[in-house]
Request: fold
Amino acid sequence: MEKTWNNKAWFMVLPVLLLVAFSAVIPLMTVVNYSVQDTFGNNQFFWAGTEWYKQILASERFHEALWRNLLFSFIVLAIEIPLGIVIALAMPRKGWTVSLCLVLMALPLLIPWNVVGTIWQVFGRVDIGLLGHTMEALGFDYNYTQDPLDAWITVVLIDVWHWTSLVALLCYAGLVAIPEAYYQAAQIDGASRWAVFRYIQLPKMNRVLLIAVLLRFMDSFMIYTEPFVVTGGGPGNSTTFLSIDLVKMAIGQFDLGPAAAMSIIYFLIILLFSWIFYTVMTNAGQDRK
Amino acid sequence: MLELIDVSKATPSDTLIRSVSMRLEKGSLNILLGPTLSGKTSLMRLMAGLDRPTSGDILVDGKSVIGVPVQKRDVAMVYQQFINYPSLTVYENIASPLRVAKLDRAEIEKRVRQAARLLKLEPYLDRTPLNLSGGQQQRTAIARAFVKRASLVLLDEPLANLDYKLREELRAELPPVFAETGSILVYATTEPSESLLLGGKTATLHEGAVTQFGPTIDVYQHPANLRTAKIFSDPPLNTIRLRKAGANFVLDGGISIPVPRKSLGLADGDYIIGFRAHHLHLDPPRDEAVQIKAKVAITEITGSESFVHVDFADARWVGLVHGVRVIKPDETIPVYLVPDRFFIFDTSGALAAGPVAQAAA
Reply:
């Protein structure tokens, strides 16, 4: 049987193909290209094979940054998820306070990363910052530019301040979707406040919580701007996360080959975690059919 | 026994319940019949103790329970939505009110097994509600209400979200299950047919007021007022306003219908005539009937029955006829009214005269 082939369809997808090519595929391929070659400038390239990958995977520096990143994501999730739930539970369900609360909660989310960083950089300074100065006045030896622990606390605080409301808003959306009858039924049963949370609210928030965890993990794992603005990765290397290390390597040291290899590895790690979360989420979804 | 004495409930913006007085006997089945927003749920919330009446008193076995919190009321409730604890198994769900009541393990086991047997949930005890069909989810919720052996069981449109077949099945099972416990059963529904199928007593509700309360069949056959007749008719009650002049009901410039013999004594004047859909005939009936011409608006065919909507004067009527009847819209056809089947209401809506008694209504 003869079939009419109409190639016009290709023209229809051409724009999006070009867009994706220029915005994603070509840059990514450039990075792949760099990661397998060595260059000393003048556009002279030498084949390096998997050398850079081996170097990165074996390097102490990469391991440290990776662990720092994982630890950071873990701490941030451990604080933001429970805190977000608590805030969502405390938010009003009806009346004019609802919109007020929602706007207040959304505010931090609307502020650009670098502005958040700058706000906190000033806020935490011992000489002129409200937080830093107050801490010193209270007798705490707080200085995020000198003490690694203080730097960590500051960066974690920034992230908690910036993103907890996202978790809270997601949880709130989950909570308001629970029909009133559930609470009524629990009340008639004589269930305690804790039982209501444990057996009604938490199970009903399951899906949004998974989304919140996924979003917050991805985002915290890619953190760059805030520590870059506030601590610059220091003191020492104490807040040098993968992304900051990557930029140091690529633009600071111009080690383009290793930096490209690191980018690819970084990308693959995020892809791996995305896949894990996606699998967990879809499985959790099938569970409820 | 549960008594409501002149109970009212108002919110700042709305009056939900208007001076309702009812007496619900132990072991009785009481149906609250009324359209959406007629106050069924509000009334149930008051009975349960979830809300406090604005005025009036609620007595349980002669003692006022106003102010007694719902946890101490010995009440169970089933909702239109299938309300179960999503993360617990069916067994744990059914056991939950007993665990709260701190019953011992053996007793809990015994009661849960019994409830599961009665409601055919035995094969599903280890599943979570989300892995069950809608019918089984609602059975679980009903089982939870049952194991409590509460003296007052409130069922708020429990079958509304189920498909037709499951609804019939559960409707037949429900009253016997609860009859064993001697509970006062209160069942809210929007459907007159459900009321008739369940039997018991029916209270018809309109805008928060009970228009009539009595044995279901009595309320259906002898509605005390136009409201009750309207609420208790599906398809809707056909009505027309006519003037009684001597031995006839007349519509100026229209028809003249002989007044049923037993109603001849009514004073002349305006009346609202009501009759149910199955008393609007398309073929001459056996009874004495009046033929009038009406214009067909639309015909709905369900298979075994056809609903013929006709316009007469400024009224829209529905006739229920057996079998498939295809009639084109805008066609003018003869329809037959049986005066002996008329509900005659005065202009205030109170029943002036009911249908003439007959062997088969």
Observations:
- Chain B has two domains: 2-223, 235-353.
